[in-house]
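Here is one chain, start to finish.
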Amino acid sequence: MERESELIGAVGFSVMTVRPGDTSLAIGIGDLPIVSTSYFVNLMESASVAAISEFLEPGETTRLVRVELEAIDAVGIGTEIRATAKCSGLSGRDLTFECDIYDGERHIAHALMKRAAVERVSFLARTAAQSFTSSKPLS
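Its structure:
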């Protein structure tokens, strides 16, 4: 990572409009036509990536390690929600983000998210090798 001292405080944003297919009802994890909390995580991840993209070395990326999510309120179809993510910590290759989602001024969700910086090619090679060695032949 470049300019590590500047990472702390870096902010990213992401926006989405809730579509019918984004609801808990549509993806089968509930019976309410409200945005699924899994989309909250996706939106916050997008904001986190945007916050630090300029600080990554060529060939470097991040992956989600942990998220603690508090869904404060719900939103329905057609609502535009926006996420903010602020890098609040750096420990080795681990980055911590404070994330929030809003519908206008209404606070919808809050999360603490940890992402790990990885070198893309070696990470994918290691993941592929692990998948290959853990596969069982079909009988």
